[in-house]
Known about the structure:
FAD/NAD(P)-binding domain, alpha/beta, D-Amino Acid Oxidase, Chain A, domain 2, binds glycine
Amino acid sequence: MxxxxxxxxxxxxxxxxxxxxxxxxxxxxxxxxxxxxxTAWQAARRGxxxxxxxxxxxxxxxxxxxxxxAAVTELHYGEEALLALNLAAAERYPSFAAELAEAxxxxxxxxxxxxxxxxxxxxxxxxxxELHGFQQRLGLAAEWLTGSECRRLxxxxxxGVRGGLRVDGDHQTDPRLLTAALVAACERAGVTFHxxxxxxxxxxxxxxxxxxxxxxxxxxxxxxxLADGTRVAAGQTVLAAGSRSGGLxxxxxxxxxxxxxxxxxxxxxxxxGAGAPFLGRTVRAVVRGSSVYLVPRESxxxxxxxxxxxxxxxxxxxxxxxYELLRDAHELVPGLTELPLVETGAGLRPGSPDNAPLLGxxxxxxxxxxxxxxxxxxxxxxxxxxxxxxxxxxxxxPDATRPFAATRFGRPARHRHEQHxxxxx
Length: 425
Ligand code: GLY
């Protein structure tokens, strides 16, 4: 079990490690979760020699995530800029799913199922009505349904449902299938996997990084040293390690991404295989202030999520977390307690100060970010891959991603420079 206070750390295997690079690439992606993989795949597709450093590529938060593509149903007040990116991502999904299926030979479970947000009492109903008004002002497609209309659509819903919002444009994909497909696509595209944690960012000027501290190239990211002692040299390094992205040693303080772990506990149940489908679409509600969602897959898996807990690095599945999810899900769909509970798990969302991702170049030349996706990592994977591929090949961040530039929380350039000098003089 991990401690809640101690971030996962790694120390380089220092003694006896070679001082020159063991491997050299155009791009090193630090982190092989869904965001790191999509970045590596898209970079390799554009002809860049690309490597990923991760002890278990395809792991991370995507193994727990439900895979809702919920741009409209998960709309939050004050996040209108993020909404535009989420909508662009949702629009990109069908072509992304087709390209990835073609490249990997695998299906990613993209399902155009729609979603229904329901209210269980008068307060929920008022809140949902307000959200509907907000959605309408933003021109989003969401239809108000009465309680009986909701139950006609989803007969397993509780008789007490007081109304709901039907959103036919919010779909789902299966994050486990998605990551498996991305690993396969990366392999086919020639991405090299270094199955070790990145332990320290290399800077041009580090011993063995191809320059000395006094030369003109000093002050440039140049790859990473891995926990197994491998020294990976790269012209461009992408920090895509989810909630761990802020913890890589050697990253100058001024460009360190401000991400934090936000724990989510999730359950997996099995729906009956025969007869009428248990649920046809994603169903969600806010019950006594906590959000609960049920995501039914064609495979028969029913994902119930998620808690949202600021508990540091703790990934313990707690009795309280499971109880609250089952209690709230049972209020929505009473028949759910008859289903086999087949899995519980907890993952860490990479939260950022404005709940939006940090994308593209940092103030340190050669260092890019693809992190901070918080609740939207699965949804934003396609546009993140596109954006990082654009900047890694010398282009600009595409328009939709420009408000989410990695530099937006940065400190003034002078301060950045001083900090960098201080660390590496
Ligand atoms: N987007 C779902 C979650 O973060 O729980």
